[in-house]
Amino acid sequence: MAGDLSRWMGAVSDVDHIHKSSKSPSMLKKMFAAQSVEQEAIEAFAAKKKLEQQRDDLKTYIMFTQGTKAWDELVETEVNIRKQRKKLVYEAQQRREKILNGIFISLGLTAITILVSGLLYVIITNI
């Protein structure tokens, strides 16, 4: 049962992260996957509601069979797992997104610079 709870807590953490990131998608995601942004938001919302119901059921079960102290310990464990997961997994994802955004912006600025330089060259050589 402990393994199942651990996987469930990981899934809860993932759904919370997806729900939060769907509220403010990256520029690349907005431009190239606009349809999937809305779909992802709806799926994250539905998953979050389902997990809330499962959490309520789990709380009732644990408090009934193990007592209030056991539920408090579980919540404390969940907090620790979320902190570790955020530090390791989600920060790496955010770094990747920032790097991709930086590359996209750099390529855009380079293309604009090349176009402007080409236009200036054409204008200067025609004078």
Question: What does this molecule look like?
Answer:
The chain is mainly alpha-helical. It has one domain (2-92). The chain has helices spanning 2-23, 27-32, 34-65, 68-126. 2% of the residues are buried.
What is shown here, in short?
With 127 residues, the chain is mainly alpha-helical.
Name the beta content range: under 5%
* Tally of separate domains: 1
Order of SSEs = HHHH
The total of helices stands at 4
Helix-strand category: mainly alpha
Biggest pleated sheet? none
- By DSSP, the count of extended strands is 0
Q: How confident overall, as mean pLDDT?
A: 80
How would the global form be characterised? Answer: elongated
Portion of residues in helices? over 70%
Q: How far from one another are the termini? A: 80 Å
* Unreliable spans: none
C-alpha Rg (nearest Å) = 23 Å
Q: How would the blueprint of this fold be written?
A:
Elements: H1 2-23, H2 27-32, H3 34-65, H4 68-126
Helix pairs in contact: 1-3, 1-4, 3-4
Features of the shown structure:
mainly alpha, elongated, 127 residues
